[in-house]
Amino acid sequence: MLVANDITKSYSDRTLFSGLTLNIGAGERIALVGPNGSGKTTLMDILAGETAPDTGNIIRQRGISVGYLKQEAAAFSGKSLLQEVLDAGVEARSIAEDISAAREELSTETDPDRQEELLLRLGALDAALEAAGGEDRDYQAKAILLGLGFKQTDFQRSISEFSGGWAMRAGLARILFRNPDLLLLDEPTNHLDLEANLWFEKYLAAFRGGILITSHDRAFLNTVANRVLAIETDGVALHKGNYDDYLVARERYLEILQATASRQEREMQRQMRFVERFRYKATKARQVQSRLKQMEKVEIIELPRATRKVHYSLPAPPRSGSEVISLTNVTKRYGQNTVYRDLNLTISRGDRIALVGPNGAGKTTMLKMLAGVLPFDGGERRLGYNVTSSYYAQHVLDLLTPTNTVLGELMKGAPSESEQSLRTLLGGFLFAGDDVQKPVSVLSGGEKARVALAKLLLQPSNLLLMDEPTNHLDIASREILADALGEYQGTLCLITHDRTLIRQIANKIVEIVDGRPTVFPGDYDDYLYEKERNESRNEASPAAAKPARPDPPTGTVKRRSGRPLTEAEMERRRLNREARRLALRIDEVTASLSEKETSIARMEAMFADPDQFSDSDAISDTAEQYRLLKEEEQSCLEEWEMLSLEAESIDEQLASLEETAVSV
Length: 664
Description:
alpha/beta; six-stranded mixed β-sheet; 18% strand
């Protein structure tokens, strides 16, 4: 559908990428990754035709349509939310108007020849309307809006009433409703909560066109992508598989490159020893010159910089009592809207809680009440013995002193810490060398967030409350945050839509629905499993069944309220559970395979260096280890292939169920 041929783009003396070639076809879901500032948005602009490359060209298949979601909010005309989305389908609206006009003319036409012409025209228009989305446009638009988290009461509200984040969702809904052939999506998950994210993943999985997408959500990229285009410091590379597959391939490539560079360095040193030894010996002059010329022709291997985990120790907070904080019979209202009534929640020492639930359920309200920054209308908030709390929200970025350097800002917050320990901590947050002397005023949003997080974690608090700490952070920074929170020894309660962070950190999930918190002990996958079990039990009971909102327009037919699950729906749920089980096992096997491949690569590097072995016994033992590793690697590969085939079979069965549902 679209081909980028040998494109290059530079700004001033900095080249973002060169020689980039890419082919996006139908069914391909390509994740575009790279550090902040690497040129991802610029590449999107070039592919969308909004920016010209310095060299190379973009070739589009004739007649394809492109939907481009930018990071900044789209322009709207001021109509209602639903109408703004419906108006995006210009082609379908125009055809519907032509059909209406043809029918009106047919109702008064008496000439048989003209009647026949109008009937033929109506047939052609009906076929064109069906191809452009059919007459069920209202349902499709509403299903997309509901999937992205809007409520039915929002449909007739003016678009101007929505905040920036909701306006971004409306812009995404408008693009999805158009159903273009190619989607270019620049950070579409920034303003989506967990539920909207899950719906969006399913929508993209069913999308038949091509997709190029950037996101800082690792779990999202793993679910959606089947290829990864990586803009790295050492060039641009295209990898098969999802984001984790890319990381495994990248790590293996770097290890092989490191081994090759080491061999090259040893060979160069050997040649230089010969040159230094015989440089001034006339009988060896020709050989010396020959070797110098050979060395000049060697292309030196340069190892790219890679983000690595920096180990540091956070200050140990004072030990709190067993009960850290509690809310008892709390009521909270906003005007006539009661968000919480008789709310009861207790957080204990060692809890690492993730607050989840649909947008607007009151997660931020609860966190603010826990932090003591939001008054409530009734009930009690009680801190436990020796508890000191810290609260992170987006406003803390505004509390940084613009004239301070990065290092100075941390010194102000932790005057008792040594400069070296602060530099080590900042190194863990990707501020290395002279970066620590940058003024806060010149930092990007993501850099400011990293400074604020580092400063917060230096505080001697044993209760940490965090509202969307991953906003503005790229994937590398999110991993660093997860490392830091893993080191944190206090009690934690956070809101985030980053499932990777929840999986790494949380040991308890609190779901908030309709002002009621439900506590799920265990990690995020335990929570999903329990949710699935509860939903299956409820839906199997007609009395417990509730009305469900429309699915995305992929053909799935929802059961009516009060009716038990059909066999097809029960089969779909069984297949989905099996798909999740297979996905978890595939992840485990992939991780094991990666470890074995790494060990094999290291041993192969050892085999290339005879100095590593001093006796035949050592060679024999290492060779045996190598043989066993190769056998285990082959076993992992066979299991991975078997699991992948099973997963593909499950996907095909699910697709078949979807197609059957469409025909019902």
